[in-house]
């Protein structure tokens, strides 16, 4: 049996998805960029060089929708193996670990439109076939996908069902002789549609046997361009990522051979949602690539631009922006690579052909994948906004890169599940796992409720350069659990109807994960290099912990104010104040320190 291996030696113990709320992560639990192998670093560098030499110089042509050029570039990327990383070796792929795949996604993302075309092809376009295809389907299509001859796309959304994807109107009917399906309907917003050759299309189809017999359920099909009854509509004119292709698909009595059914009839929802988990964590990596490019432009401009007789980079308010962006990128790396590290670790030892087990193990981290998606996309919006502000008037005009980066970033909060949907997934998934006893969240909440009601407990003192932040993190986890306890006592099974409460709980959970990822990573760097050499990462972890705690406290107030009243409200607010109490860090001098370092480097640099 050929099994998957974890390339990084520190990855040993498997960690349950969502358990970060109730267990403290050790440095070995949090994979970070410092743990990349030499091979991973080399692949990252090769990808970055390819993007800088081949993609960035033709950016304007890409933006003008020269899709023949995009296809040539995808083919060139394939020549370097970049489109083959997630494809099994026996079908022409390289079958590498998920960290390498994530690194390629980050490093190729120096031109947002191309990055979307690339990700739609190698990620959501290819993985349904890798995971659910028959041997014959894989033999037929995967070698061409790996070599860039065949470009793929993923068609789930419709004009009337985006977030509500299970409510698709497109229908598939099996012929009486069982040889083909006839599909009718439309798909909307399909990336790569203008030039792709192979589409994974979802349609409702009647299930013939089993518990769902007679019901119409989501089913996936592989449809080749040129299939009778299949056509691609006009290109959308978009706010950003204008050089990526986004079109509707029209299916009018589209005849698809029965052998192009992907997976089982009625099981399309599993394909759709499992693929999105990967799409979500990879979006985080793409966002890191875009964010670092935007940041570098912002830093360089700040160094060049003069006002009031000096470089604007000397102004405290400009330095504050630079520090905030750099901290966002540092925490972003910590969150994204911790998540992909968890996934790689969980996949170690799994039979390479056991695709069901592979998906199950990735699905375990649905919460972490959604956290990455929400946190990273909102971080990127902050970065491009601050960079545009550094450019000011020049940021508002097309000749300078800040304008396009600002427009391009916005899509990330919309696709791969909107951030609202992902916030609901985060709280909903954790609550469901807790109710099912899969994650011991309920006993942890109960223990905490008893502890806080009994009065101030003993303080656990942490050691090391981030002792204050570790203390803050412990309080942040308690605040999140306490708020979840108050909300679940008040609303019980109806909690999912209280979306604002679900959203506020998600904000706390997201911030706990982000804060912990950054603190543990900075601590790890300090242990390896010493506190002085790790001054910048330590400063960024402190800045972020301070900010995250403020967000968590605010969200906790919102939840408690909605869920309690009278004496209970007063008691719970008293507990909240006790848990949130902490000494403020001097974040002004910490930010100046971070900004000075980045300005000297002229880019994001650790
Ligand atoms: C450039 C681009 C590329 C895309 N590429 C692809 C692709 O390749 N393949 C593909 O299948 N799709 C693709 N999409 C579609 C994308 O995934 C959807 O736009 C997205 O899922 C949101 O669906 P919607 O636009 O219909 O919004 P809606 O679902 O109508 O949502 C509208 C608003 O309501 C909110 N909302 C919806 N339901 C709820 C709820 N239950 N609770 C709270 N709030 C809710 C949403 O968060 C949003 O703010 C792409 C879209 C764009 C713009």
Q: Helical proportion?
A: 55-70%
State the shape: globular
**Which radius of gyration do the C-alpha atoms yield?**
25 Å
Which parts are unreliable, with pLDDT below 50 for 5 consecutive residues or more? none
Write the layout of secondary structure elements.
Blueprint: H1 38-55, H2 59-63, H3 67-79, H4 98-108, H5 112-125, H6 127-132, H7 135-146, E1 152-155, E2 171-174, E3 180-191, E4 198-206, E5 216-224, E6 230-232, E7 246-257, E8 261-262, H8 268-304, E9 306-307, E10 310-311, H9 316-347, H10 355-363, H11 366-391, H12 401-409, H13 419-435, H14 441-453, H15 467-491, H16 499-529, H17 535-563, H18 566-580, H19 587-601
Parallel strand pairs: 1-4, 2-4
Antiparallel strand pairs: 2-3, 3-7, 4-5, 5-8, 6-7, 9-10
Give a quick summary of the entry:
The protein has 606 residues and is α+β, with helices and mostly antiparallel strands. Helix content is 56%, strand content 10%. The chain has 19 helices and ten strands.
Structural summary, described in words:
The chain has 3 domains: 31-150, Acyl-CoA dehydrogenase/oxidase, N-terminal domain (Butyryl-Coa Dehydrogenase, subunit A, domain 1, Orthogonal Bundle), CATH 1.10.540; 154-266, Butyryl-CoA Dehydrogenase, subunit A, domain 2, CATH 2.40.110; 274-606, Butyryl-CoA Dehydrogenase, subunit A, domain 3 (Up-down Bundle). Helices cover 56% and strands 10% of the residues. It has 19 helices and 10 strands. A hairpin with a 2-residue loop joins strand 9 and strand 10. Flavin-adenine dinucleotide binds next to strand 1, strand 3 and helix 13. Residues 120, 154-157, 162-164, 189-191, 238, 246, 411, 414-415, 418, 420-421, 499 line the site of flavin-adenine dinucleotide (FAD).
